[in-house]
Amino acid sequence: MPESPDHTLLDRVFDVSIALKGIVGIAELVGGFALFFVNPEMIRQSLGWLTAHLLVGHDHSPLAMWFDHLADNLGTDATIFAAVYLILHGVIKVVLVWALLKQQLWAYPWMIVALVVFIIYQVYEILVHFTWAMVVLTLFDLFIVALTLREWQLHRESHAATRAAAPA
User: What is the pLDDT of residues 66-118, one digit of tens each?
Assistant: First the structure.
């Protein structure tokens, strides 16, 4: 059966979206491991420098206030938590993205479950510490859940048709 242009476009959107998730997962892994080797005081000093030099005249902007808040709350425990969180988040994403790009059927429901868990946490964060960035990330994750559900259904149908056509 020939594929419709919409089908092909949605497949490409899915592949690109999943690849972006994989790139973010790799960045989370790198960042998480880097946090184990960086002193929290050094991070606080870097954030202070960013606020002082890049945000001159914008001391009360949301970005400057976020940097100040981040620096104030950054201690060894917070750094370790962030490192472990980023590493776990990154491993989950990289493994699932790799499996999805290889069209492994088991990965589709696991990606959906992982994204739903992340979305629940993100909604909590939105309610407690509202940011537009978190809203956009949550909407993107919801979009990927919908695309993953669609792709999973298509692949299940394709596998069922292949099994039905195979000689017994």
Answer: 666 666 666 667 778 888 889 999 999 999 999 999 989 999 999 999 999 99
**Whole-number Å distance between alpha carbons of 84 and 35:** 9
- pLDDT (tens digit per residue) in 30-77: 999 988 887 777 776 776 776 666 655 656 666 666 666 666 666 667
